[in-house]
Amino acid sequence: MPKLILSMDGLVLKEIPLNKERISIGRKQNNDVQIDNLAISGQHAVITCILDDAFLEDQNSTNGTYVNGQPIKKHVLQNNDVIELGKYRLKFLTDTSQPGLSASELVDTAALKPFDMSSAAVETSTSTAGTGERSPVSTQVLPQAALEQPAQAEPLLDRLGVIQVLTGANAGRELELNKTLTTLGKPGRQVAVITRRPHGYFITHVEGASFPTVNGRTLDAQAHRLGDHDIIEIAGVKMEFFLRA
Asked: How far is CA 26 from CA 23, 39, 44, 187, in A?
């Protein structure tokens, strides 16, 4: 289980296990991690956890959130990252003694490299390791809706999901959804995430003023379960979702 080590001026104050899907950090008492200091906003930041992966998001705080000295809005936490909130430090540690998937295995930051979601190259902050090229995938913090479990028990997933691009320069290309998270779209315009769960594949809007559509119907903020041969449109590109035996 990942955890945070809270310290100030080199003095360790407490250890905080990340045992919830959503951990709030701020000055107010209703936060999971309360830091009673005027430099900390009432609702300063949020950490969303999926398995051993953790996503940090600044909540429009007054003084900002920093990771390893750099200001961030959204950030995928890596082992030994140091979150800086004023004079306070929160060191993020993963439990490497436990078997499981690493952050790089959970978040597919290169799976869409063959795909440009528009005719022009997609600009992101993620580079493909060893090549210096930009990858058309943007890692995003999932909204709470993306983490909700289906209300009813359903048969366990036994088929692999696949996305096939139907329009644009990459029409006909396929992407197997074999990772826990796959992010699609164009950062700054429209981004959605497809999560692979035991009971199926779910798509959730995470960025952009307009929401993706499935079979011509605009999605809302809730996670939407994908059905076999659903037609998805994201950032002006149509693609088909289907299940492969």
From this structure: 10, 10, 5, 28
| pLDDT at residue 221 tops 70 | yes
Interatomic CA distance for residues 44 and 41, integer angstroms: 5
Map residue 219 onto helix, strand or coil. Answer: coil
DSSP annotation of 156 reads: P
| Reported pTM | 0.45
Span 74-98, average pLDDT: 83
Paired sense of beta strands 88-93 and 200-207, if any: unpaired
Q: Is the pLDDT of residue 231 over 80?
A: yes
DSSP string, 83-115: EEETTEEEEEE--TTS-S--HHHHB-SSTTTT-
The pair phi, psi for residue 147, each rounded to 5°, is -100, -10
* Cα distance between residue 243 and residue 58, in whole Å: 36
